[in-house]
Amino acid sequence: MENIKKNIKNPSYLQSSFTLLMFFAAWGIWWSFFQLWLTKSGGLHLSGAQVGTVYSANSLTTLILMFLYGSLQDKLVIKRYLLIFCAILAALVGPFFVWVYAPLLQNYFWLGIVVGSIFLSAGFLSASGIYEAVAEKLSRRFDFEYGQARAWGSFGYAIVAFIAGQSFTINPQINFWLGSAFGIVLLLELLFWVPKAEREADNKIVLRGEGSDTPSVKEMFGLLKIKELWFIIILIMFTYTFYTVFDQQMFPDFYTGLFSTSAAGERMYGILNSVQVFGEALMMAIVPILMNKIGVRNALLLGVLVMFVRIGGCGLAHDPITVSCIKMLHSLEVPLFTLPIFRYFTLHFDTKLSATLYMIGFQVAAQIGQVILSQPLGKLRDIIGYNHTFLIISSIVFVAAIYGFFVLKKDNEDVNGDPFIRS
């Protein structure tokens, strides 16, 4: 209770929480049903291979932009210029999908792939890591728990996932226009709500020249020479990659296919997605407490094991009730990946490079995995079906868990950033 009162009195916590809430609302209202929009007859009715191509192209463009975004935000430190640019694109998501993206994919598929990957990556897929990185920087500067602020992002996604499930069955275009509405609110908030402490910190950053010693894009590529960073990249490529490949590219169509009608499946998917993300928001607040007890390394390994069980369980299940119960493990999995991995970088690497390292070691690594695996796994799904494909993915994750056990550093080993002390 005392911590809640402290947060309510912290303007930076309130502002960061609202920013994450609105960004994930603007994104989740359409992203939660993006795969269904691509595959269902009410949308574009693309094949599994074509959907894989869409996701691979998005990941490739995201991969490129993440290097640029990470380097730029490290120089900006906590300044909002990049976030405002991304919010402008979020505000335009409705017109883009309805008047540009859908017609291009239907009539000029490869041109639509290129244009869409640039817009979606610039406004959302690359932007998500920047919103999170800025919130994490603010949490360390202004004394609040990042995980509790990030939980509001999950809360926003949960609310709109429920709304999206109802509106999608009426007209999928409604979700895109709602995305624009949330994007406009996000843009206005970033422009006009700047806490006094943050304005003062901005001035000090200018006076001290903070951020001027952050790496250029060329120097950032040089970080790839760090052997320890590659250990993390390989682990993430064969684990968190499947957050998109499984959860976004495959699961929605798989789940809705378990019901007698598409409309019933879509409505139930919206409800399930909403409940799951509500659980995720709760876990975002609880996992930091768990991580303080078991440590950063153990929390991350636990997240990998939860993913193995969840994906493998969906491969073995054949009814919507069982699959729904297994899906709820997602609520625990996401916080066990996102929170420990960020703390791992600030623990074992220079904190000045936290946004860059998070981009390369986590976000970029996952995108590389998606570029490599999205299209082949989409083709594999066309050939052997969802269940067998899920079992193959789960086997890969299990092997990655064994690999992670041997390569991840212990919390008291090679501490080059902020030390971690268990409570």
Automatic annotation (TrEMBL):
InterPro entries: LacY/RafB_perm_fam, MFS_trans_sf. Keywords: Cell inner membrane, Cell membrane, Membrane, Transmembrane, Transmembrane helix, Transport. Its main location: membrane. It is found in: Cell inner membrane. The chain crosses the membrane at residues 12-33, 53-69, 81-102, 108-131, 151-170, 176-194, 229-246, 268-287, 299-318, 355-373, 385-406. The keyword Isomerase does not apply. The keyword ATP-binding does not apply. PANTHER family: 3-PHENYLPROPIONIC ACID TRANSPORTER-RELATED, BLL5896 PROTEIN. NCBIfam families: 2A0105, PRK09528.1. This is MFS transporter.
